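agent: user wants the structure for Single domain-containing protein from Photinus pyralis. delegating to structure tool.
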Amino acid sequence: MKILTTFVCIFAFLSVALGWTSLEQVPVNSEYCESSDPSTGKVKIGESRPATGCVRITCSPGLIQFAGCGVASVSKPCYMGEEDLSKPYPDCCPQPVCP
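agent: tool returned. relaying tokens verbatim.
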């Protein structure tokens, strides 16, 4: 049973690590990306920074990439912890906790 619990926890950690991504095409500018979402604003090319929630924004010429936490589930006795928005992505993502 301990081996099964360990396997489930490892799988859960991998699920969280994979997360989600979204791409937004933006007009090409030599200095920055500007999202159509006003809350994102301007991001310098080559820069990554946090966004609202547990999300990271990365700017490349003509493209903004958004990355966030994945969805995971665990079996008892493990459980998923809470997001910790005091930390940057991906450290803010919920992590499996196995007693």
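agent: one observation worth passing along. Residues 2-18 form the longest helix (17 residues).
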